[in-house]
Amino acid sequence: MSSVGGLLIVAIGINLLEIKKIHVGNMLPAVFMPLVYFMLKQIVMTLM
Protein backbone atom coordinates (compact mmCIF):
# COMPACT_ATOMS: atom_id res chain seq x y z
CA MET A 1 0.00 0.00 0.00
CA SER A 2 2.91 2.34 0.56
CA SER A 3 3.89 2.30 -3.11
CA VAL A 4 0.36 3.29 -4.15
CA GLY A 5 0.34 6.05 -1.54
CA GLY A 6 3.74 7.25 -2.72
CA LEU A 7 2.49 7.43 -6.28
CA LEU A 8 -0.49 9.50 -5.17
CA ILE A 9 1.79 11.89 -3.28
CA VAL A 10 3.98 12.31 -6.38
CA ALA A 11 0.89 13.01 -8.48
CA ILE A 12 -0.28 15.64 -5.99
CA GLY A 13 3.18 17.24 -6.13
CA ILE A 14 3.06 17.35 -9.93
CA ASN A 15 -0.34 19.03 -9.69
CA LEU A 16 0.99 21.60 -7.22
CA LEU A 17 3.95 22.41 -9.47
CA GLU A 18 1.49 22.74 -12.37
CA ILE A 19 3.61 20.51 -14.59
CA LYS A 20 0.67 18.39 -15.68
CA LYS A 21 -2.91 17.99 -14.47
CA ILE A 22 -3.37 14.51 -13.00
CA HIS A 23 -6.78 13.53 -11.65
CA VAL A 24 -5.68 12.11 -8.30
CA GLY A 25 -9.24 11.52 -7.11
CA ASN A 26 -9.67 8.89 -9.80
CA MET A 27 -6.74 6.93 -8.33
CA LEU A 28 -7.99 6.82 -4.73
CA PRO A 29 -9.70 3.42 -5.08
CA ALA A 30 -6.30 1.98 -6.00
CA VAL A 31 -5.21 2.47 -2.37
CA PHE A 32 -7.54 -0.34 -1.32
CA MET A 33 -6.61 -2.82 -4.05
CA PRO A 34 -3.56 -4.29 -2.20
CA LEU A 35 -5.72 -4.75 0.88
CA VAL A 36 -8.34 -6.67 -1.09
CA TYR A 37 -5.62 -8.73 -2.78
CA PHE A 38 -4.03 -9.82 0.50
CA MET A 39 -7.39 -10.59 2.08
CA LEU A 40 -8.33 -12.83 -0.85
CA LYS A 41 -4.90 -14.43 -0.78
CA GLN A 42 -5.34 -15.33 2.91
CA ILE A 43 -8.77 -16.82 2.26
CA VAL A 44 -7.47 -18.95 -0.60
CA MET A 45 -4.50 -20.13 1.45
CA THR A 46 -6.72 -21.22 4.34
CA LEU A 47 -8.91 -23.24 1.94
CA MET A 48 -5.93 -25.20 0.62
Record keyword descriptors for this entry.
mainly alpha; 48 residues; 2 helices; 0% strand
In short:
By secondary structure, the chain is an all-alpha fold. 62% of the residues lie in helices and 0% in strands.
Number of domains: 1
Computed structural class = mainly alpha
- Rg: 15 Å
Q: Could you give the order of the helices and strands?
A: HH
Measured between the Cα atoms of the first and last residue, the distance is 26 Å
- Strand residue content: under 5%
Q: Shape, please? A: rod-shaped
Mean pLDDT: 88
Write down how many β-strands occur, each being a DSSP E stretch of 2 or more residues.
0
Describe this structure in words.
The protein has helices spanning 2-16, 33-47. It has one domain. With 48 residues, the protein is mostly helical. The longest helix has 15 residues, at 2-16. It has two helices and no strands.
Helix and strand arrangement:
Elements: H1 2-16, H2 33-47
